[in-house]
Task: structure prediction
Amino acid sequence: MPEEHDLVIIGGGVGGLVTASVAGQLGLDVVLIEREPALGGDCLHYGCVPSKTLIRSAGVAHTVRRAGDFGIDTSPGASDLGAVMDRVKAVIARIQHHDDPDRFRGYGVDVRFGEAAFQDAHTVTIKGERIRGRRFVIATGSRPAVPPIPGMESVPYLTNETIFSERQLPARLAVVGGGPIGTELAQAFARLGSRVTLIEAGPRLLPKDDPVLTAQLQEHLLGEGVEVRVNTRVASAETAGDAAVLELDYDTACEARTFDRVLIATGRVANTASINPQAAGLTLDRDGTLEVDNRLRTSQRHIYAVGDCAGPYPFTHMAEYQAGIVISNAIFRLPRKANYAVVPWVTYTDPELAQVGMTTTAADAAGLDYELATFPLADVDRAIAEGETTGELRLLIHHGRIIGASLLAPHAGEIIHELALAITERVPLRRLAGMIHAYPTLAQIGKRAAGGYYAPQLFSARTRRLVKWINRLLP
Result:
């Protein structure tokens, strides 16, 4: 019988790496198994890192084209997608250094590469070898979901796992899916010079975000030349030489459109089938994720799951947070429950769209009596100076405290954390209104929105009478 290890971790993405580094440095006997040839997971190789690097290059190209708006005379050349992708690979390589297997081996972690599959609830096999563990952490992530579009299998479509290997900028790019990945990459490729058509089956882009702000973002994308087609379904696909023909079904009409490349960005599906969960007695939810409790234990209490394969949010920062929950429960044996009440997320378009806490949809579904405090970015002095005035802050106020915040603005992903802290710590809105913010900054929008919320009360007829009374009585 093989030796039993303290902890076996399946998956070398953020969730698995955080858990492995802590467990190894605490002296546990840890085995980390990764099926890909390098550690780092989807975020490093196909997701967050390459996409944000590409978005940055696209932003530079866009700024150069707008140089005249800032009084600068320049003539931009054509974008070299190959050079851009070289920079993407260089950034990945630089960050990959932090995920070097030898670094984790230095922590005492036995790092192995290969496909792991459960043989029973305490044993996995990898390359024919059996590995037993007292406890397991499954952190196998997710992969692109490809919708069952007739003929799509014959089209050499791209996903987030393959698009960063492209070397030639497509003249005509179809992006199927108006979620975060599709919206971000649609704008990026349009800024690099592609004619982009963004196709969304639903009535609007980014359906989990505030509809007022997604409408503003959609108008902004249209202004940059992205063709946005909502309520549009791809009925079929076929090849036409090196191109692809998509049959677009919208309203009561159909239209055949030809594209040089097709990017599928219609969501993610959990990587759970390959680990043979049935052999371990694990229960899957309807979406294929592993069923876990609020301590991230699966139906087998000694097996935990984190990240995309467990849900409920497919974010790298969620996997990192969940790893902390597992470390507390599985390593320190301290019962700690996951709390998803205040989870920030960001769509990295330009401007960025950030959300934390409750949306208006969630607040309405909960039957909460709330008020809205809003402030347009166009009235923020720094935004005017930057020439970036598309956007707005929308705060949900319940009993004088923020319960949700939606922000469309440059660097919204940086600004949203002040509001996340306010929600988490139940900071009264008046404290935000009275807090000193540096001028001129985009972050002032929070103070302005809070101040605007109190303005009607401050300048009411009752307050004016009180002020007059005070000034007559007191010297």
